[in-house]
Amino acid sequence: MLTVFYLLLILTVGRCSDDLNFDMKTVGVGDDVNLTCTRQKSSGQGTLFWIRLVSGNFLKFLGGTYSFDYNGVNKTPHMTTKQEPGTFLLRIHETKLSDTGLYYCIKINQLEMTFLNGTFLRIKGPEPDITAVIQVPPSDPVRPGDSVTLQCSVLSDSENKTSPGEHSVYWFRAGSDESYPSLIYAHGNSGDECERSPQTHSPQKCVYSFSKKVSSSDAGTYYCAVATCGEILFGNGTTLEIEGNCRTF
């Protein structure tokens, strides 16, 4: 069952419902957090799940329930999912820096998956060592069928590193007809993208690339986002214009 669940998620990441709610929430270390997802019992049968996506790791299943009223509770010492009137609740007890990430509430009805809620949860901690997130647009015109590579350079001051662990990198796309950006890619934490200049006190530079074969519907603005130290830092965005596309961004 979980194998089918993972395959469904991989095939549908970035395909969100038109009324997807996506927001950012910031809390301090040790705070309790409640994330809610509306249960619409009149919309038919289905199963709701809370999941967490962190680049470099498999998605984490946090709990599930039914669209109809059900008394079951998924509980761990750190997270609890349960039904409340009209909602499906995810409660995080005494947050930690490692809880920073992207949380989705999804609904599965047979083989159809719908993304209902998306929350980028930021746990405020030490100041990040990231000094810049730089995106460079493609230098050549882009036509339907071309393969395009977008790059994001992350500069960090490793001499003053205050947070343990590596940073996580995500790519989002915002089109003119979408109210919220869609997550389209999450990088793994191999460390192969980073290089350190031999000069003393020089910043570390990590370059992350995202490639895809584009069609006219891929036009839009692509954002590189870096999660580190409980902070989420966005690049300046890369606007991808597809020649022959009549839409304006």
Automatic annotation (TrEMBL):
Its predominant location is: membrane
Q: Which UniProt keywords apply?
A: Cell membrane, Disulfide bond, Glycoprotein, Immunity, Membrane, Signal
Q: Does the keyword Hydrolase apply?
A: no
> Keyword Cell membrane on this protein?
yes
Q: Which GO terms describe its biological process?
A: immune system process; response to bacterium
A Pfam family annotated for this UniProt entry: V-set
SMART domains, per this entry? IG, IGv
Signal peptide per UniProt: 1-16
Give the UniProt subcellular location, in the record's own words: Cell membrane
What is this protein's record name?
Answer: Ig kappa chain V region
Q: Which organism is it from?
A: Collichthys lucidus
Q: What is the lineage of its organism?
A: Eukaryota, Metazoa, Chordata, Craniata, Vertebrata
